[in-house]
Every structure is written in C-alpha cells, then in structure tokens.
Amino acid sequence: MDFYLKENGVRTSFEYGQLNISGDENFGFRPYQLMVASIAGCSVGVFRKILDKQRIEIEDLKVTAEIKRNAEEANRIEDIHLHYVVKGYHLNEDRLHKNLEISRKNCSMVQSVKNSINVEETLECIHLSQ
After folding, report:
1. How many other CB atoms are found less than 10 A from the CB of residue 109?
2. Is the separation of the CB atoms in 103 and 43 below 8 Å?
3. pLDDT tens-digit profile of 40-90?
4. Which residues, including other chains, have CB under 8 Å from residue 76's CB and lie 6 or more apart?
5. Using CA atoms, how far apart are residues 50 and 17, in angstroms rounded to an integer?
6. Which residues of 52-62 are buried (b: 16+ CB within 10 A; e: fewer)?
C-alpha cells in the first residue's frame, strides 16, 4: 500500500477507489473511524460466513459500535462495544451466541488488537413471525 501526503491528510488508492484520511473529518475519514470500521467489518464478515456455512438464514443483520477513547493517552481507543441485532424467522439464540464466539476467535482484526483494545460483543435477536 502506498500513502501520499496531501494538504489536509493522507491519500491512498485501492481497487475500489481512493481513500482520504485526515484528523479533520471535513477532509477524509478519521483514523479511529477506519480502525473501528476494520474491526466491525471483519467481525461481521466472519460471523456472516459462519452463518452461511451452517445454512442459518437471517433476514437482516445490523451492528452498532460504541467507542470509548482515552483523552489522556493520545485519545487512544480503549473499548469497542459491538452490538449485533439479528432479525429472522426461527432463530436459535444459543447457536447464534456460539457462532459469535467462534467469529471472535477467527476475526483477524479483533485478534490483532486483543491485548490493547477491549472488544466486547453482544447479541440481540428479533424474531419475525410469518
């Protein structure tokens, strides 16, 4: 990956397009946003793969991230709480919780920060009726 300095931040390009990174969100994504997005995106992706392999059908999946930062230590990210909301018919909550635990162990981003950022995951099921 190549990163280029620009007036108000850094720019890089990937096959899906250009990414602007800046401490000022008027000029690009803030670094902490990208860190949280990487962790949440990886976690959701691994969880979804597990559900697909087990042929567990869901109608919708939303994850909300709450972040706690420490202003006294360079505003570093200390805690990320990922709250999963799964909607579907005939959901087995115990199985979904177990799959979330498996996804945590197999998510490279969560594993990469496990000794520096506390990542907590909770799960809520919304049972749809036919």
Report:
1. 20
2. yes
3. 999 999 999 999 999 999 999 999 999 999 999 999 999 999 999 999 999
4. 69, 70
5. 29
6. eeeebebeeee
> Where are the strands (E) in the chain, listed by range?
4-6, 9-14, 17-21, 60-70, 76-88, 118-127
Residue 129 has a pLDDT of 86
Residue closest to 59 by CA, chosen among 91, 99, 88: 88
**Ramachandran bin of 16, using left for φ above 0, alpha for ψ from -120 to 50, beta for the remaining angles:** alpha
How many CB atoms sit inside 10 A of residue 120's CB? 11
**Residue 130 predicted with pLDDT over 80:** no
Q: Which two tokens stand for residue 21?
A: 């990174």
| Helices (runs of H) and strands (runs of E) counted in the chain | 3, 6
Taking 80 as the threshold, does the pLDDT of residue 104 lie above it? yes
